[in-house]
Design a protein that fits this description.
With about 190 residues, this protein is mainly alpha-helical. The protein is built from 6 helices and 5 strands. It has 2 domains: about 60 residues, no CATH class; about 100 residues, no CATH class. The protein has a 3-stranded mixed beta sheet with strand order 1-3-2, covered by helices on one side. A two-stranded antiparallel sheet has the order 4-5. Strand 4 and strand 5 form a beta hairpin. The longest helix has 16 residues. The chain starts with a helix and ends with a strand. The C terminus is likely disordered.
């Protein structure tokens, strides 16, 4: 996987302070890792030495990782903090995401992925970023829009438009009921 080709495909990344390393391991259960500027990684997932401190780091592990997944990780972990447009859209998305949905997702992560962090830490580091990138970056499958409310989709379509990703037709009002993969049903 070539980072220059990813930047060519997604020019949004061109001026971002990102170091990139491709360490293919098809047997790993991880696809990619995003490291903040100061993150050293954990005992089982140390920051690769080619990812300099003071810059964001993206380590791609699975050969099946798509270029859009690299963009998604940057956007959902760093872009939402440093880009004023994404920052505003992310806050709007979080405001329109019921806590009950996130708590159900957290419980599912504890069961399925052996999540051990406290809810508040998981929510900010994994929960919101994962849900924020699922639809715009095609990470939740072809029926992903069913997982989101119309207000959430409206925000996420703005994200797609801002990043130059194709967006579907606008969702008509009134709101519809959607099903969360973890069982929550809401507006």
């Amino acid at each position: 996987m070539d980072y220059n080709a990813i930047v060519k495909q997604y020019p949004y990344l061109a001026d971002k302070p990102i170091d990139f390393v491709y360490t293919p391991d098809p047997k790993s259960d991880r696809y990619l890792e995003f490291y903040s500027r100061e993150e050293t990684g954990g005992p089982d997932t140390p920051r690769p030495k080619d990812l300099r401190m003071g810059r964001y780091g993206i380590q791609v592990i699975q050969p099946t990782t798509r270029p859009i997944d690299v963009l998604a990780d940057y956007v959902s972990h760093a872009g939402v903090k440093e880009d004023p447009v994404l920052q505003q859209l992310y806050q709007e998305f979080k405001t329109n995401t019921p806590d009950a949905v996130m708590r159900q997702r957290y419980e599912a992560h504890k069961t399925k992925f052996k999540e051990k962090r406290p809810y508040s830490q998981w929510l900010e580091m994994t929960g919101y970023p994962e849900l924020f990138r699922g639809y715009p970056f095609d990470q939740f499958g072809p029926n992903a829009e069913e997982l989101y409310s119309p207000k959430q989709l409206q925000v996420l379509n703005k994200v797609k438009s801002y990043l130059g990703l194709s967006a579907p037709e606008p969702i008509p009002e009134p709101a519809f009921m959607y099903k969360d993969p973890f069982g929550y049903v809401g507006p």
